[in-house]
Design brief:
One of its GO terms (molecular function) is oxidoreductase activity. Pfam families: FAD_binding_6. InterPro entries: Cbr1-like_FAD-bd_dom, FAD-bd_FR_type, FNR_nucleotide-bd, MRET, Riboflavin_synthase-like_b-brl. It contains six helices and eleven strands. The protein has 222 residues and is an alpha/beta fold. It has a six-stranded antiparallel sheet with strand order 4-3-6-1-2-5. A five-stranded parallel sheet has the order 9-8-7-10-11, with helices on both faces. β8 (141-146), α4 (153-161) and β9 (165-169) form a beta-alpha-beta unit. α5 (174-184) crosses α6 (196-208).
């Protein structure tokens, strides 16, 4: 199996059907909030104690959800009960090994300006990491998050306590999303993370609010 082997330091539940994996940072790994890795694993290897077959490697991309990567870094995983990889990742206890490639991606936060991080569903991981990095660097942060079962609520509450503006919306509240973007789009560099329909709605709302979607940093999860 290709990629760099890293240890799974811990796995914790961070929301309904959502876990965060803390992974060992390998030597030379230098990533900024907004970037992602390719994770490789053989899910049945540990569970069944069978011989490793390279053909059974499962690969998925995950965006970093930690503001730094000094000794460890975090990825947030939504659990698909019928998925090939996420249920296995959620059941890990720490000490296992997975393989990663990366970091990848040109959408990064360099801790140099105020931010507006807009997240739909799994986009909350990078949005929270960017907002936390901004707060740590003395900049202002806004998080606009749309999901029917929010994750990382404790971190969002901590951001709000630190002075960030946090707006959490129901998944079908498109009017609320547009209003939040109209209210906050000029408060900093706008980042958006989520599936295609969500980031398209964000771009349209930004244009309607008088902003420029070409200036926004948008990551489409497909």
């Amino acid at each position: 199996m290709e990629g760099t082997p890293v240890s799974v330091e811990s796995v914790r539940e961070v929301g309904p059907g959502t876990v965060a994996l803390e992974l060992e940072t390998p030597a030379g790994f230098d990533a900024a909030p907004g970037q992602f890795v390719l994770l490789r694993a053989i899910p049945w290897d540990v569970a069944e104690d069978e011989a490793i077959d390279e053909d059974d490697v499962v690969m998925r991309h995950y965006t970093l959800s930690s503001p730094s990567v000094d000794e460890t870094f975090e990825i947030t995983v939504g659990i698909d009960p019928d998925g090939d990889l996420s249920p296995w990742l959620a059941d890990l206890e720490g000490g296992e090994t997975v393989h990663i490639d990366g970091p990848f991606g040109t959408i990064t936060y360099e801790r140099d300006e105020d931010v507006v991080a807009v997240a739909g569903g799994p986009g909350v991981g990078p949005a929270v990491s960017i907002a936390e990095a901004a707060e740590e660097s003395g900049h202002n942060a806004v998080v606009i998050y749309q999901d029917d079962e929010p994750a990382h609520v404790d971190r969002l509450e901590a951001l709000e306590d630190a002075g960030a503006a946090v707006v959490i919306l129901d998944v079908d509240d498109d009017g609320g999303l547009a209003d939040a973007i109209e209210t906050h789009h000029a408060d900093g560099q706008l980042y958006a993370f989520g599936f295609e329909s969500f980031v398209t709605a964000v771009a349209d709302a930004l244009e309607d609010a008088g902003g420029d979607s070409d200036e926004a940093l948008i990551e489409n999860f497909g």
